[in-house]
Write a structure and sequence with these properties.
Length: about 375
């Protein structure tokens, strides 16, 4: 990958030099930006095809991966089966369980309630939920549930630490946020989130308890040769140990792209509300992706490039949704089988994120260099 990027730097440097030459004026001026953009896009498509295809091959990846730049599809590939017994192939319309990627929908629902004046992030949970009206829980706030700094692990248990002082990931915290949405809106969580899907143009997304129909990728443990199907999917996502607001959304490649496009394009939240969503208010040491910032139901890179993302895992269904704001790039990785015994479940995800992180940094650097060249030629 390093050699390819180096070669591309040389090509674009030459291109920049040609475009910046002070030749005599011609009748049809060259559209420098269009040439640069098309060259960068061609480079991205080629590199993504080579690099991500190699990940598919290396891990015999069973699932779907797509990369979009704004409204342009840079890469998309699906492989394997949504149903291993019937040998039903995964396609562009396959729907997956997305696990904790669901948390950003719950966070946005809370923020939409805030925009309507029905709650504030600093409100105490005890104002809304009876279970929190105890000495142990009485000072926990909505803000602390949103960024996992409440100290809550399992509802009813002792706090892990003083609320607001550290980070501890809690599904029960996000399921509590779902209850708050229900209380302040007067509607069920399912109704609220389905309305949000409609607002974002997501017509193939559901909750585990509302889904009916075809196209759902059943979840499996193992590999293509030796697998075990997880029973009662997707209904089991509504059980207490998971919970719909914490990890019970079903979606697919196209709908998650539409979600990113709408959310980060300013079509869901007001600008000042959106800043609350993406502002780093905690830090997390992720067991797979390492140290990162955490906002409201969303993770973020600590360094460059700027990236907002969240991984998800319910048994047999790993997922990852990434958005790079500078280039308006979405990267979505979904699967319906996990080899827990070998510990390979998230290795393809880590490798693909490294590829797209590096590519994003390269493109940003190129644009900066080319803009300098352009200014110097004026």
């Amino acid at each position: 990958m390093t050699k390819k990027i180096f070669s591309f730097f040389i090509i674009l440097s030459l291109l920049s030099g040609i475009l910046s030459c002070k030749n005599e004026v011609k009748p049809n001026p060259v559209d420098k930006k269009a040439i640069i953009d098309s060259t960068i896009i061609a480079f991205e498509k080629k590199l993504l095809e080579q690099q991500i295809d190699s990940v598919f091959k290396k891990y015999e990846f069973n699932g779907s991966v797509a990369v979009f730049k704004d409204s342009l599809e840079l890469y998309r590939k699906s492989n394997g089966y949504s149903d291993f017994n019937k040998k039903t192939k995964i396609d562009d319309n396959t729907i997956f369980a997305i696990g904790s990627v669901s948390k950003q929908f719950t966070a946005v629902l809370i923020l939409l309630q805030m925009e309507q004046g029905k709650l504030k992030p600093d409100d105490k949970i005890s104002t809304y939920i009876k279970d929190f009206q105890t000495k142990e829980y009485e000072n926990i706030t909505i803000h602390q549930l949103l960024n996992h700094t409440s100290g809550l692990n399992t509802l009813g248990g002792k706090l892990m630490f003083k609320s607001g002082s550290e980070f501890f990931y809690s599904n029960d915290g996000f399921n509590t946020l779902g209850k708050i949405v229900e209380k302040t809106s007067g509607k069920s969580y399912d109704e609220n989130v389905m309305e949000l899907f409609k607002k974002a143009g997501m017509d193939h997304s559901y909750t585990g308890t509302t889904f009916e129909g075809a196209g759902f990728a059943g979840a499996y443990i193992g590999n293509a040769k030796k697998f075990e199907k997880i029973q009662n999917m997707p209904k089991r996502l509504g059980n207490k140990e998971i919970g719909i607001p914490a990890g019970g959304i079903l979606s697919g490649i196209q709908d998650l792209y539409r979600w990113n496009h709408a959310l980060y394009g300013g079509k869901i939240l007001k600008p000042e509300t959106f800043q609350k969503f993406v502002s780093k208010s905690a830090e997390r040491r992720h067991p797979i992706f390492g140290k990162m910032g955490y906002g409201y139901g969303i993770m973020m890179n600590m360094g460059q490039p700027t990236a907002y993302f969240h991984s998800g895992y319910v048994k047999g269904s790993p997922s990852l949704n990434i958005y790079y704001p500078e280039e308006k790039t979405s990267v979505i990785i979904l699967s319906n089988i996990a080899d827990e015994e070998k510990g390979n479940a998230f290795k393809p995800y880590v490798e693909i994120k490294k590829i797209t992180d590096a590519l994003e940094n390269t493109v940003i650097s190129l644009r900066k260099d080319l803009n300098v060249d352009k200014k110097q030629s004026l």
